[in-house]
Amino acid sequence: MADVRNRISEIQRRIGVSAAWGGGGPGWSNPVTAPNTSFARQLGDATAAGASAGATAAAGSTLPPFAAAATTDPSLTLAEALGTTPVYATKPNGLPAVGVNDTMAAAGNGNLPDSLLASIGGEFRLAKPAADAYQRMVNAARRDGVTFGVSDAYRSYADQVDIAGRLGLYGQGGLAAVPGTSNHGWGLSLDLDLDDRAQAWMRDNGWRYGYFEDVAGEPWHWTYRA
């Protein structure tokens, strides 16, 4: 945390923004006491405040919660900590909901346009928030000396039909969801190639980046739930 604060202080010095950590001082609310205000929002508010003492980050923001990466993973670069999707500070009880937004729902499962997807390497893509969280997770794993591969990610509707035909449906003893219902079709699930060490790392850390092992009997299947 101290490392992140030092980097932030350097940015503040360069842009001439005074920010108080922990005291509710001008220009910045303490992210510990304002957990519902995003890190990026606090930086933006502090910058906009400039010479206007007393301006503080908005409380009760509807933006994503302050990224816990800045408090739980001080090895993150400042670029990784700024403007990213949220990371869980504590492991949720149970599985969080899958984040299908209105734009995704309007496009339909398996019919997401390219504008809603981002590459995670090779031929594989995920919905942009899931892809962002995945890349940060991969970077964190590498810092711990852990690597893993991807065998599947976003599936178009046609891909889901093909897989269901080859592997059979869950309800019939197979391994595939009914086409149009798979979280792969929302670009929020991916299948990982994991050795024992990588599997253990994911179970210990995947949730920090919004990824959960959510299909019984499929330790390779992880879904972004944030």
Structure description:
- This protein is an alpha+beta fold.
- It folds into 2 domains: 2-81, no CATH class; 102-224, Muramoyl-pentapeptide Carboxypeptidase, domain 2.
- The chain has 8 helices and 6 strands.
- Residues 14-72 have low confidence and may be disordered.
Record keyword descriptors for this entry.
alpha+beta; two-stranded antiparallel sheet; Muramoyl-pentapeptide Carboxypeptidase, domain 2
Q: Numbering strands along the chain, what is their spatial order in the largest sheet?
A: 3-4-6-5
What fold name stands as the CATH topology of the largest domain? Muramoyl-pentapeptide Carboxypeptidase, domain 2
| CA-based gyration radius | 20 Å
User: Based on helices, strands and strand pairing, what is the structural class?
Assistant: alpha+beta
H/E element sequence: HHHHHEEHEHEHEE
State the shape: globular
Q: Determine the strand fraction and express it as a percent band.
A: 5-15%
Distance between the termini: 23 Å
Largest sheet: 4 strands, antiparallel
Please identify, by name, the CATH architecture of the largest domain.
2-Layer Sandwich
The number of distinct structural domains comes to 2
* Chain-averaged pLDDT: 74
Instruction: Show unreliable segments.
Output: 14-72
* Total DSSP helices: 8
* CATH domain class of the largest domain: Alpha Beta
The total count of strands amounts to: 6
Oligomer: single chain
Helix content: 25-40%
